[in-house]
Amino acid sequence: MSRSVKALAVAAVIAMAGGATMVLAQQRPAQSQRPVVQAPAPAPAKTGLGREAHPAEVAAWAIAVRPDGQGLPAGRGTVKQGEEVYQTQCAACHGEFGEGAGRWPVLAGGRGSLTGENPEKTLGSFWPYLSTTFDYVRRAMPYGNAQSLSNDEVYALTAYLLFLNDVVPETFELTRENFTTVRLPNVGGFYDDDRETTERAFWRANPCMTNCRPEPARVTGRARVIDVTPGERPAGPRVE
Amino acid sequence: MPRETATLNRRGFLAAAGLGGAGVVAGIPHASAAPPAAPDPLITDVQDWARTLGDGVQARPYGSPSQFEKHVVRRDVEWLTASRESSVNFTPLHELDGIITPSGLCFERHHGGIAEIDPAKHRLMINGLVDKPMVFTLDDLKRFPGRVNRAYFLECAANSGMEWRGAQLNGCQFTHGMVHNVWYSGIPLKSLLDEAGLKTNAKWLLAEGADSSGMTRSIPLEKALKDCLVVWTMNGEMLRPEQGYPLRLVVPGWEGNMWVKWLRRIEVGDQPWHHREETSKYTDLLADGRSRRFTFIMDAKSVVTNPSPQAPLKHKGPNVLTGLAWSGRGAIKRVDVSLDGGRNWRTARIDGPVMPLSLTRFYVDFDWSGQELMIQSRAMDETGYVQPTKDELRKVRGTNSIYHNNGIQTWLVRPNGETENVEVG
């Protein structure tokens, strides 16, 4: 209670200071005939709106983890501990061995599939950084009961997923300390957007307007053949 | 007079395109049909609505569409996803005109269902590389100076993603319906960053949602300072729950996943976070097995919304072809339309405002004699980018990339008017 009163008072003082700044700014023109001295750009004016965050508020929400380990909480977990958590919390959707149930995401395998017909994007085959797994599990899993796992459980689950993907042995324990030493197989498989150079040909001054194909166009594929559209009319329309 | 102009335009088009023999009958003055044998009872009989009183004011305190428009709804494709809480539905583009998408028809994409948040309980935090971590309420944001009104398209990077291997879904709602265009009111994100005070090493932001997926995306600071908005209204009223009520991030021209809904936190950092939605998802797997990441910009794209499989041609003679074009790189400069599968093109008429990073509406008025058509549209933006064909895209990207399929769409119109999603070669 007293804190919020204090915060209000601080806000009021800031707001008044803002008002004073505005008055000063209005008086500026009188000084404009003096020689101009190049000064660094002034900091943007503050509105005084909002309030400073409490450290405990930042700690509660700022749980994002980066590849360099920033944001990792203290904790540890073994593959074996992870398997126990996994079987009760994850296996129903993701399958006992990460193979996925129904259309739920597959979590293991897929190595070597990225150039094939059905790329399987798992931690072992595709994800570049382990931090992504830890961050995502901690913030969003289990599905429908997010943020219910302890940090140790998230470490253990992450260790188990590494094991399922043949990245670590069964005896492995993942900790905050050894976290960034784990390298995922596809870490080198990504590069920044380069469309503006590699697809430069799509910027073309005068696209063809007439006789752009040597032969009349012909149909090479049809959606109806695949027949996966929901609620489609069985018969065609009638033209009047 | 307008009619005459249209006729001349058609003639010019046909002459230029060499389409005269292709069967499009143009420039023929159409005689009106003769009177019917019996008069139309809809005219000769007094109808109920013309005799009795209708609902009074306040019978519909928040208006909704006519009872005869119940078919105009978002639709989903159930087999696409494992559950509807992490799924997508599609805007019925073929039922709409103009450039603004009605709020209730804007496609939905959720990762943990719709968060229902009392605006009085919503908080926005700015933390990380700032002088002072801060918390704002919605009331605070509404008091900020410099409020803006902007219309922007939002396209999911996976729009048309099911079409990489060939024509699959039969309707522009399903092939292109992960796009909408909305007027937003809010404040520049820059205002909030200035209020917190950016540290000199700030380079990236992490935007985070308050829903149960805790959606996060890394955004380059440069973009945030250029044109990102924090908004609470769409089309003049508060955001719809499914669009992030009470607060959403607007990232103009960039893929929809970055427009974090239920926005609760912006963290400022010196590098990207490489979170799930920018590594496992929303990276573009190319033919060599490597992937492009941070492909934020949505390239120029267009689609003919009418006719299309859900909106077939029903009449010979005068018809209106219409569609939408957009580009994440700027304003649409021109849209061309082909009726013969891309062999010959004419420039469509654009009507309504042409705003950068907004949907743009185009029309071609044409006469149809009942012959087969292969309808395509091709957008060009102010940077000179020309929407490529699907085959051109496949040549440089393969077929595994899921995202950023902006290839030219083909609709096959059969003599009975039936219209189908096809590939042409």
Structure description:
The complex is a heterodimer of chains A (240) and B (425). Helix content of chain A is 34%, strand content 6%. By secondary structure, chain A is mostly helical. In chain A, helix 3 packs across helix 6. With 425 residues, chain B is an alpha+beta fold. Chain B folds into two domains: 103-291, Oxidoreductase, molybdopterin-binding domain (Sulfite Oxidase, Chain A, domain 2); 301-422, Immunoglobulin-like (Sandwich), CATH 2.60.40. Chain B is built from eight helices and 24 strands. In chain B, the strands form six sheets. Chain B has a five-stranded mixed beta sheet. In chain B, strands 6, 7, 10, 11 and 12 form a five-stranded antiparallel beta sheet that branches. In chain B, a hairpin with a 2-residue loop joins strand 10 (229-234) and strand 11 (237-238). The two termini of chain B are 40 Å apart.
At CATH level 2, the architecture of the largest domain in chain B is Alpha-Beta Complex
Number of domains of chain B: 2
Radius of gyration of chain A: 29 Å
Fraction of residues in H or I helices of chain A: 25-40%
Provide the succession of SSEs of chain A: HEHEHHHHEEHEH
Beta-strand content estimate of chain A = 5-15%
Number of strands of chain B: 24
What is the H level of CATH, i.e. the homologous superfamily of the largest domain in chain B?
Oxidoreductase, molybdopterin-binding domain
Whole-number mean pLDDT of chain A? 86
